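[job 0412] stage=fold_complex status=start
inputs:
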Amino acid sequence: MWQWIHKWASPKHFYRVSTRGAPWLWGLALILLPVGALWGLAFAPADYQQHDSFRIIYVHVPSAMLAESCFALMAVCAVVFLVWKIKLADIVAKVAAPFGASMTFAALFSGAVWGIPTWGTWWVWDARLTSMLILLFLYFGIIALRYAFAREHSGGRAAAVLSLVGVVNLPIIKYSVEWWNTLHQTASFSLTKAPSMPESMWVPLLLMMLGAYALFGAVVLSRTRNEILRREHRARWVRALITDTCDKEH
Amino acid sequence: MSSEGGHSWARAFRYTFVRDLRLRIRHGSEWGSPLIFFALIVTLFPLATTPDRTVLVTFAPGILWVAALLAVLLSLDALFREDHDDGTLEQMLLSPVPAWLLVLAKMCAHWVMAGLPLALMSPVLGLMLALPSSVFWVTALSLALGSATLILIGAIGAALTVGVRRGGLLLALMILPLYIPVLIFGAGVVRLALDGVDVTPYLAILGAMFAAALALSPWASAAALRLAHSG
Amino acid sequence: MACGPYWTFVVKCRARERRARRDDPARDNERQVGLRVQLEGRQLGCERDERWLFQALEFSIEDGDLCRVEGPNGSGKTSLIKMLTGQLEPSEGAVLWQGKPLPKARAAFHGALVYSGHLSGVKEALTPLENLSWYQAIGIDDDARSVAACWQALDAVGLKGFEDIPVAQLSAGQRRRVGLARLHLLNRPLWILDEPFTAIDREGVAALEHLVAEHCHKGGAAIVTTHHAFSSVAFTRRIGLDGHGGHHVL
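[job 0412] stage=fold_complex status=done
writing structure:
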């Protein structure tokens, strides 16, 4: 069992196995995202309260979900890397961090744009916005820490520890920000929950969400593969791979 | 053997604690500067906003807490750095005493030299920010408890960056987001006291955060030190 | 160093008090090595930045062994020493102390070890005496309660009369000796010394050499990395690293 996991998680083996997976994920993302976006932005009915501005939900919700899933993925990778010393986990955590940070930024930005029609201002110290902002700072901290080390391995381990500390803290941060938010009654207008979305509204949202996850998988997988090649560029199998592809081209 | 072990652990803790206090006291500037920094930041706020006492008093809890938080943060960079540079950290990790115990001793000494003085100084700065004297005790208590939590959390970051040259700004970037809950409830205690509301629930939450940090941080810091050291 | 004259004065007064208490029953000069040394390397490998410094290193060190680790710069001597002291986890293989892998036998192993590395491990703002009493405390030494042991250790490395002077005011060689006084102070069977002869004068070198030889003669063991050949005693083991991934063990 263990040997099987270690074999599967060896960069070389993973690279081979994932060769066929990556195009599928890209394809899935490229089908789901345009279909969902077109459906949501053009064909889904407008909200009876918020009119067309509610369509931001088709960007906002998937990016917010990805922002959080990405952090969860990094925490899982951190455990795997620190406990079982599987290098692949470190590579995944490394390539996932910038993606998660950009998704957090996308969620914040779309939230700010949404704020204009609903709240009449770009930024409100709403509990969810605030904790999203803190999540973005956590991402920045983890990325900065990783690149502060001269040796890749040390940076990876430090980043792993910080992601674990961050994941323990996230619920506390969320809870305390909500508490703080209710204490200051100023930002009482939060998003009114749409009373049971009609099918024509949530189906495109579901498509967008699935598409976003497919995109997430595709980006992480492709970048992981690139990172494997970069890290193992001295290894024999990478050299063989390069000479093979060169031979085919000639 | 176990009681013997417990005794020698206590001894190792005491010696490390006293050693760190002694080192701080001999480097006079090192323990004085967080305090002066604290006072300076507090001075900056009225200059940047308004000297109006009625306005200042509403900002006072936040100003005191943000200034104390920054002072603790700046002092943390030195927590393990010197020991790392002269090799005593290496020797601590090679001691038969568990590393978390020695790390805890260092944190305690750090609190005595860089956390507790902030709390003791807060009434003076509170006066300058027009805080009524009735909330001085609560302010000092919240800062004493909160600064301990801040040191415990920050020590993990200090341990992770111990091998990084000029890790000060990096440390701030990593640790400040984690400080937010402590800031919210710490400043909240003072604000509730200002409003004349019962502060015990907030103090209890602050205490709970301290307890959680006390349980996890020495262990996590020791692990982080081992990681940083073997790199 | 900001050790003003005031502190020097205070430290001196305190030392005078201690000197009064110095007539402790003289410590038994005969060093007793209680624990048996049994340190083994099993298939040890060290990987640095995707390059193997050494692989499949096998050796065992027992009572009475004097082992020298040799090799050119960058061949992984210090990495090997860090693995043997439990500071660095082997990239492959394991280090065993009395048959148990190091992480599991950590406390027992570190209770049997004195390590002296590139860094002196001496606090400059403290006096040699304060430095040593701290080492005694964190070392859980058997006769830890007697200050006399610290005095004797300092006498033994030729620092008589310098006990109460902050280390910052001592010379580089003297600082080094403060660190080496731990060998006298802590009653440990295994010594691991990384380049112990740097910055020590000829007299000091001879004394240290004698000390190590005597330690091994009495049944202790020592692992030393050095370019310096011992004149009085022969190495019973050698671990040579060639810097290209190869090694030889004698």
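[job 0412] summary: The CA atoms of residues 64 and 88 of chain C lie 25 Å apart.
[job 0412] exit 0
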